[in-house]
Amino acid sequence: MHLNHILVALSAFALFGCATPSIPYKPTPYENAVSTTSNLTANVVHVTGIVYGSGGMSIVPIGKGIFMPISSGPYPHLQFNEEDQRIFVESFRQELERLHLFKAATANSAISQDAEIKVLFAQTFHNPNFQQYVLDVAMQISSQGKTFANRYRVVSNEGDSWFEKMSTNASEGKAKAGKKLMAALIADVEKWLASK
Fold it and tell me: CA-to-CA distance for 172 and 175, rounded, in angstroms?
């Protein structure tokens, strides 16, 4: 009978991961001041790439002083997926306007603007251990036949203490990755505008 309880518990543990809904990315505003503004318009384009993740390991007690390692994952519902990317790019577009970096910024518009900003999520990776997100992203700004491009590798928990890594949930991990990526993109948009 004791073995039946263990099997039921393990089955429920495995199925719980399958039934968990997606955790959407919640954008955070850019918190720093900007030194450059413009009257230009921009079209912001989102391009998605590879979305993947790794498995995780848990230890489940199965008896007095006896523990069993359980390997699971990857968890598609926790990954920084195409919908999370779309939410991020929309938030980035809104920040460009709010910070007056651009007078107006549209999303995926067919109408010609002063500049086109492509945000390419080349790949996003989720590691359920520490809820770590790694975003490999490129941004390209095209205007008047000239192009500025840069690549970014954002690791959500880079610089965190061991305790911070252990206490971060998936939603917080996504938010950390998004905040770091937003800061990098805004800084480069500022540099580009200052060089015009």
Answer: 5
Q: How far apart are CA 106 and CA 112, in angstroms?
A: 10
Cβ contact 119:84 at 8 Å: no
- Which tokens go with 117? 């900003």
d(CA 88, CA 125): 16
**Domains of the chain, with CATH numbers?**
2-195 (3.40.50)
Higher pLDDT, 102 or 25: 102
Which residues on adjacent β-strands are paired with residue 140? 118, 149
Secondary structure of 90-114 in HEC code, one letter for each residue: HHHHHHHHHCCCCCEEEECCCCCCC
68 vs 99, which has greater pLDDT?
A: 99
SS3 state of residue 31:
coil
C-alpha distances in Å from residue 10, one per residue of 6, 13, 58: 6, 5, 11
The residue that leads in pLDDT, 4 or 169, is: 169
pTM > 0.85: yes or no: no
